[in-house]
Amino acid sequence: MGRKSAKIAVKKGAADKARSQVFTKALHDVALSVKSGGGDPDTNFLLRIALDRCRKFNVPKDNIDRAIKRGLGGDGAGYEDVTYEGYGPNGVAVFVEASTNNITRTVANVRSYFNKCGGSLGKDGSLQFIFDRKAVFKVPKIDLDEDDFTLEMIDAGAEDVELEDDIFEVIGPMEVFGSIQNKLQELNTNPEEAGLERIPTTFKAIDEETLTQIEKLLGMLEDDEDVVTVYHNIEDTEEG
Questions:
Q1: Closest Cα to residue 197, out of 220, 228, 167, 225?
Q2: How far are the Cα atoms of 8, 13, 16, 80, 223 from residue 67, in angstroms, in the given order?
Q3: pLDDT of 31 strictly over 70
Q4: Burial grade of 128 (CB within 10 A; 0-12, 13-18, 19 or more)
Q5: What b-and-e string marks burial along 41-74, b requiring 16 or more CB atoms within 10 Å of the CB?
Q6: What is the pLDDT of residues 161-201, one digit of tens each?
Q7: How many whole angstroms separate alpha carbon 89 and alpha carbon 92?
Q8: What phi, psi does 142 have (nearest 5°)?
Q9: Which pLDDT value is given to residue 222?
């Protein structure tokens, strides 16, 4: 499926940069899950997953508490989730998810990154035929035969189930998120990650020169404190 190329990969930079990005995404997931399902992890499945992920990456408790308050409309209120769609060099599609308390600042920054790297920010919906929004779960291998687990997930509406490094990746239309969630709860297993991701339907082949430019653009987006996740549709050319 080439999905590994769909999400930005941290290829260079110090470990603290990668750590900061993990914190940003993990805390955003906490706030978003609280906003949609409340602040009790016993009744909020997504919050429970988000908190487990924070603990896994040793996110400081104060940061987690602030994210919960933000989701409840307290500390940090005024933040909103926004998306930006554009094309990088050589027509590479780039989809940006951000969380900001100053849209004017964020859109100006994102536009400048595209312009500096030979790309352009497009209108909302311009990439609607290039990325599909899918339900994605990453589930540790459980004491259940691989074929049986796969059948259980397909029965719940999954389109694809892959096992790699003892982690099942379960993908389906975003409409079946709830049914897959319920099926995993029936199986008494919690995924390591669960959410909606933007997966390319078509991929773009590029040369080395374009790759250098697009990596520059992705790096600028990575470094912006308002940016949560970046997706692109560069064709996966990883060698064994």
A1: 228
A2: 24, 26, 20, 13, 20
A3: yes
A4: exposed
A5: beebbbbbbbbebbeeeebeeeebebbbbbbeee
A6: 999 999 999 999 999 999 999 999 899 888 888 888 999 99
A7: 6
A8: -110, 175
A9: 85
Given CATH 3.40.50.2000, say whether it is the number of domain 131-200: no
Q: In the chain, where are the structural domains located? A: 3-71, 80-129+204-232, 131-200
Answer whether residue 7 shows pLDDT above 50.
no
Stronger pLDDT, 47 or 110, i.e. the higher one: 110
CATH code matching the domain that covers 80-129+204-232, chosen among 3.20.20.70, 3.40.640.10, 3.40.50.300, 3.30.70.980: 3.30.70.980
